Amino acid sequence: MKSIGFNFTFTHTSYHDHILRSQIFPLFFHIWIIFGAFDSSLNDKIQFPSLYQMAPKDSSLHKGMVRLMTHFEWTWVALVIADNLRGEEFLLELTQEMANNGVCVSFTEKIPVSERRHTESHMAFMPRIMASATRVIFIHGDTDSLMILRYSQLPFLPNWKVPQYIDSYNFHGALTFSHLTSEVPSFKPFLRTVNPAKYSEDIVLKEFWHSTFRCMDESEKLKQEECSLNASLETLPLLYFDMTMSEMSSILYNSVYAVAWTLNEMFLVKSEKMYFFFFLKNSKDLHSFLKNIQFNNSAGDQVFMDENKNPEAQYKILNYVTFNMDNEVLVQVGQFIPKAEPGQDFTINEEAIVWGWSGSKIPCAICSESCGPGFRQTPREGEPICCFNCSLCPEGEISSQMNMKHCLKCPEDKYSNKERNGCLSKVVTFLEVSEPLGMTLICVALSFSLMTVLVLWIFVKFQDTPIVKANNRALSYTLLISLTFCFLCSLLFFGRPTAATCLLRQTTFGVVFSVAVSSILAKTIMVVLAFRVTPPGSRSRMWVQSKVSNSVVLICSGIQVILCGIWLGTSPPFPDMDPYSEPGHIIIKCNEGSDFAFYSVLGYMGFLALGSFTVAFLARNLPDAFNEAKFTTFSMLVFCSVWVSFLPTYQSTRGKAMVVVEIFSILTSSAGLLGCIFIPKCYVILLRPERNTQESIKNKVNPRARNHSR
C-alpha cells in the first residue's frame, strides 16, 4: 500500500500574505503551524482548513494597556499602530476601552508598508511623533514596525519584546507586555553548551557565532580567545542574545512539541504500521486527530492544537533597563491576568520601574493640569474630554477630590466653605428679640402703643369737649384701640416662628388694620353725608347716626374676617425652613401657605385705604372746624405710600429682611394714621384749649357753610 506524506510548515503571522497565496493550491496534506501572535483573520476553517494557531488569544491586551494608563493617570497618549487589518481592529478596541475610562488620544500614527524600512521612513515618520506634546506613546505592531524607531527614545513602548538586533539603548525605560509563560526546564543549561563545534552542521549558528564573537575567519578565530570553544552565549549582553526563552520561542517550542506529540499518539493508536499508513490517506482524520491533541509540555503548561480551546493570554509587564551600551536587562515589574478576581488582575511595582529620561519620575501624560479640590472640570469647546479648564464650584457645592467632573451639593443644613472643598453646618437664624435690630423695633412698637393709649386716655378724659364730640367719639375710640393692636401685632413677628404665631401673624394684622381703615372710611363717609347729602334740617340726617358708622366698620371688617377664615381653613400658614436665601444660614420663617390668600388680604386692605383716600379727597373742602377731611386725606396718602412701596421691597428681600420690612411697614403706616389724625387734635386739646370751645367751632363752621351754600 502506498503511503502519503504530510508537510508541516512552522511560520509567523507576519507572513500573512504568503499564507493566503498558499491557500490557492489544494495542499490538503500541507499543515500550517502558526507560532506568531494570534490573528482572528486566520481563524476561518473554511478558508484555512489546514492552519493551526498556537498562540494564546490577545483578546484582553487592550484592556491591560488601558489599565496601565489609568494606573499612572495617563489621559493624553499617542498611539502608533501598523497599517493593516489587525492594527485597525486593535485600534478600534483600544480607543473604545480608552473612551470608557476617560483616556484620550492625542494623535494616531499608522505605519504603512512603504514606510517600514530604514532611514527614509524614519525621516518622514519620526518628526511627527517627536513634534507631539505627549510624553507617553503606545505602540502596537510587529517587529518590522520597530525598525524606524531605533534612533528615538520613547517613554513607553508596549506589546513587544525588543528585537535583539535593534539598538537597545533607544528603548531604555520602555515597558512591554509579554505573554506570561513558565520556564522550560534545562533550557538555559542547553544554551550554555551550545557552540559551533558541537553542532557543526548548523550553518546559521556558525555565522551567528562568528559575527557575534567578532570572528572574521578561521585563522582569526584561532587567535582570539572569545572565539574559542570555551565561549558561551551566556556572556553576551541582552542586545545580542537573551538566555531566557522569549514568548515567540515558547510558542514555537510548543508547536514543535505538539507535532511530535501528535505523531507519537498516532503511532500508538494502532501498532500495525500498515494501518497507520492507511489512516494517513484521509486528511480529515488527521485534522480531527490534531484538534483533539491536548497535553502538558515540559514546563507544565497545557497545550492545545485547537485554537478554539486556546486560553486567553496572560501578560507580564517587563521593564527594559540599559546600564550601558553593552549591559541590558529585562525586569518584570508587573502582570495582568484578565480572568483573575477584581483587584488582583492587575499588579505593578512602581518602585522597580526605571523610566527613560526621567529616571524614577513617572512620565506625565495629561492635556490639562489637574483640577484640585474645590474645582470641577469644564470641557473646552471642540476638544477631547481630557482637555478642560478648572472652574470653581458654585456656591453651595463642593468637590473634595482631584479632577471631579461635577461638584456635589451640600446637604440642606450645610453650606460650602470659601475653598469649596468642604461643607460647614449652617446657623439657624430668625429675627430674635435679643439682637439690636429686634430690640429697637420692639421698643418702637411699644412706644407707639403707649402713645396710642395715651391719646385714647386724652380723648376719654376730654370726651365732652367739642373737638372730641365733633370727631365721633365711638369711631375715634375704635380707631385708637385698633391702632394700639396694630402696633402690638408687630410683636408676633419676633422670635422663632411657631404654629401659633404663624397662624396669628398675618390674620391679626389684616383684621386690626381693616378695622382701623374701616373706621377712617366711616368717619369720612359721615362727613360727606353731613354736608353734601343731608343739609341741616333734613330728615335724612338720621342716617348719619352712629348706627350707620358702626355698620360700615362691621361690614368692611367682616369681609376681611371672612377672607382670613377661608385662608386659615384652606391653606393656613405654617413654620418652615429656608436654607437657600442666605449662605451659611437656615432661616426659620412662616410659610404663608397660599400666596394668593396673603395678597388677597393685603389687596382688600388696600381697597379700603383707596376708598378712604378717595372719599376724604372729595370732602377736603367741606366746612369742618378742625380740617378732619384734610388730615384724613394726608393720613391715607401716607398709608398708601407705605404699602405700595412695601410690595416690591417685600418681594425682593429674603430671610429676616422680609420680616423687618413688614414690621417697618406696619409701624410706619400705623404711626402715620396716629400722627396725621390725632396729634393735631391732642395739640388743640392740651395746648390750645381756647380753640376747643363751642363759640370757636361756630365761628369756623358758619362762614365756610355760607360759602359752601353759595
UniProtKB/TrEMBL annotation:
<dbReference type="InterPro" id="IPR001828">
    <property type="entry name" value="ANF_lig-bd_rcpt"/>
</dbReference>
<dbReference type="InterPro" id="IPR000068">
    <property type="entry name" value="GPCR_3_Ca_sens_rcpt-rel"/>
</dbReference>
<feature type="transmembrane region" description="Helical">
    <location>
        <begin position="596"/>
        <end position="619"/>
    </location>
</feature>
<dbReference type="InterPro" id="IPR028082">
    <property type="entry name" value="Peripla_BP_I"/>
</dbReference>
<keyword id="KW-1133">Transmembrane helix</keyword>
<feature type="transmembrane region" description="Helical">
    <location>
        <begin position="552"/>
        <end position="570"/>
    </location>
</feature>
<dbReference type="Pfam" id="PF07562">
    <property type="entry name" value="NCD3G"/>
</dbReference>
<dbReference type="Pfam" id="PF00003">
    <property type="entry name" value="7tm_3"/>
</dbReference>
<feature type="transmembrane region" description="Helical">
    <location>
        <begin position="437"/>
        <end position="462"/>
    </location>
</feature>
<keyword id="KW-0472">Membrane</keyword>
<protein>
    <recommendedName>
        <fullName>G-protein coupled receptors family 3 profile domain-containing protein</fullName>
    </recommendedName>
</protein>
<feature type="transmembrane region" description="Helical">
    <location>
        <begin position="631"/>
        <end position="651"/>
    </location>
</feature>
<feature type="transmembrane region" description="Helical">
    <location>
        <begin position="474"/>
        <end position="495"/>
    </location>
</feature>
<dbReference type="GO" id="GO:0005886">
    <property type="term" value="C:plasma membrane"/>
</dbReference>
<keyword id="KW-0732">Signal</keyword>
<dbReference type="GO" id="GO:0004930">
    <property type="term" value="F:G protein-coupled receptor activity"/>
</dbReference>
<keyword id="KW-0807">Transducer</keyword>
<feature type="transmembrane region" description="Helical">
    <location>
        <begin position="663"/>
        <end position="686"/>
    </location>
</feature>
<keyword id="KW-0675">Receptor</keyword>
<keyword id="KW-1003">Cell membrane</keyword>
<dbReference type="InterPro" id="IPR011500">
    <property type="entry name" value="GPCR_3_9-Cys_dom"/>
</dbReference>
<dbReference type="InterPro" id="IPR004073">
    <property type="entry name" value="GPCR_3_vmron_rcpt_2"/>
</dbReference>
<dbReference type="Pfam" id="PF01094">
    <property type="entry name" value="ANF_receptor"/>
</dbReference>
<comment type="similarity">
    <text>Belongs to the G-protein coupled receptor 3 family.</text>
</comment>
<dbReference type="InterPro" id="IPR000337">
    <property type="entry name" value="GPCR_3"/>
</dbReference>
<keyword id="KW-0297">G-protein coupled receptor</keyword>
<feature type="domain" description="G-protein coupled receptors family 3 profile">
    <location>
        <begin position="437"/>
        <end position="701"/>
    </location>
</feature>
<keyword id="KW-0812">Transmembrane</keyword>
<feature type="transmembrane region" description="Helical">
    <location>
        <begin position="507"/>
        <end position="531"/>
    </location>
</feature>
<keyword id="KW-0325">Glycoprotein</keyword>
<dbReference type="InterPro" id="IPR038550">
    <property type="entry name" value="GPCR_3_9-Cys_sf"/>
</dbReference>
<dbReference type="InterPro" id="IPR017978">
    <property type="entry name" value="GPCR_3_C"/>
</dbReference>
